[in-house]
Write a structure and sequence with these properties.
Blueprint (H helix, E strand, L loop, with lengths): L7 E4 L1 H7 L2 H17 L2 E3 L3 E4 L6 E9 L4 E9 L11 E8 L6 E6 L1 H19 L6 E5 L3 H11 L6 E5 L6 H10 L4 E3 L2 H7 L2 E4 L4 E5 L9 E4 L8 E3 L1 H6 L1 E4 L2 H4 L5 H6 L9 E2 H5 L13 E4 L4 H17 L5 E2 L2
Parallel strand pairs: 1-7, 8-9, 8-11, 9-10, 11-13, 12-14, 13-17, 15-16, 15-17
Antiparallel strand pairs: 1-18, 2-4, 3-4, 4-5, 5-6, 6-7
Helix pairs in contact: 2-3, 2-11, 3-4, 3-11, 4-5
The structure holds nicotinamide-adenine-dinucleotide.
């Protein structure tokens, strides 16, 4: 049985790790952000529900990239008790469909892909918006995603050191190991000190209140706010969005479930002031306009990012000597 005769390709988590490196994820995510801004790719409304069991949030992120002919859905969510069972709290699977027939083409593990595509998203924002002479990388958060974020960010500028804050400082040890592995000195600091020192800051927490205040941030800094992906979550002071140039993956998500939701609700930021990063990639927006401007990327996470990296995994698996194909 092969795919041509109706089989479904299965790509395991392990295969995804082997097949989708940071560079491939960066290229796929950047291309799909550009396609979204051109109107060639669309995300469909997100479903995310508390299921009333295991304290879990479960849902779907779906979309169609007409330029790349990638149609599919990522299904999964957040199970907060998983870490006590030796599993990551985020669990997901991507389903890819044939856009010509609707037939299921591939089942792709989504856990590693979620981390690598989220890191690629903030990395694209750093590549496009951070000052070229950025030297200090700040990290707010040290959970599962943070190490992926650090690795991808470190490749975008010639950083000289990392300063990091986490609610539980013990958890910073793992990030410190990653920094050491990539040859960057690492320092634990207060959130205020991260703001005062960092040229680029990534926030990747599950916080529901501001962790960074507007007047802590250096002129010319770039922030990638990646943790806020649900109504009510919040990582930074809304006043920071009022004084920054704000970019996002998808404006509709940014102003409803992203970091911008709070500044927009408070009347500090107009929805029309939030720019899709795709406009910068496509050359329609200049991005950073001066060395002193603060730029902020509100990375809410869109289904098309998941589909883009799942497509990279599926193509790689198909090209391998023994693709795993099943009949359903
Ligand atoms: P995790 O559970 O492994 O880590 C959570 C992190 O948030 C830890 O650093 C923890 O200390 C911190 N934290 C939790 N509550 C906090 C609070 N009240 N104040 C300050 N810090 C707090 O989670 P993860 O997988 O690393 O994901 C981190 C966040 O990123 C989650 O909120 C997740 O939903 C979000 N996320 C976003 C995207 C995206 O595309 N934007 C993708 C994946 C995950």
């Amino acid at each position: 049985m092969d795919e041509a005769s109706g089989g479904v390709l299965v790509v395991s988590e392990e295969d995804c790790q082997r097949l989708v490196g940071r560079l491939a994820a960066f290229a796929a995510v950047e291309a799909v952000f550009a396609a979204m801004e051109r109107g060639d790719a669309h995300n469909f409304p997100v479903v995310r529900e508390a299921i009333g069991h295991a304290d879990a949030l479960y849902g779907f992120k779906s979309g169609f990239d007409r330029a790349g002919l990638v149609l599919g859905v990522k299904s999964g969510g957040y199970w907060p008790g998983n870490s006590t069972k030796g599993l990551t709290n985020h669990q997901s699977t991507v389903f890819l469909f044939d856009p010509d027939t609707g037939r299921l083409k591939a089942l792709v593990g989504g856990n590693y892909l979620t981390a690598v595509r989220t890191a690629a998203s903030s990395a694209v924002s750093i590549a496009r918006l951070a000052r070229k002479d950025a030297k200090v990388l700040g990290m707010i958060g040290a959970g599962h995603q943070a190490a992926f974020q650090l690795r991808a960010a470190a490749e975008q500028r010639a950083f000289e050191r990392v300063v990091a804050w986490n609610r539980r400082s013990e958890a910073l040890a793992r990030l410190a190991e990653v920094a050491e592995e990539i040859g960057l000195p690492f320092e634990s600091a207060s959130a205020e000190a991260v703001g005062a020192q960092a040229d680029v800051i990534i926030t990747i927490t599950s916080a529901f209140e501001p962790l960074l205040m507007a007047d802590w941030i250096k002129p010319g800094a770039h922030l990638a706010c990646m943790g806020t992906d649900t109504k009510g979550k919040q990582e930074v002071d809304p006043a920071l969005l009022a004084k920054a140039r704000v970019f996002t993956d998808e404006v509709a998500q940014s102003v409803t479930i992203g970091e911008a939701q709070h500044a927009v609700a408070a009347g500090l930021l107009a929805e029309s002031a939030v720019m899709p990063i795709g406009a910068v990639i496509n050359g329609a927006d200049p991005g950073r306009r001066s060395a002193d401007e603060i730029t902020l990327f509100d990375g809410t996470g869109v289904g098309l990012q998941d589909l883009a990296v799942a497509d990279v995994a599926a193509r790689g698996a198909r090209a391998s000597t023994r693709p795993q194909v099943v009949t359903i």
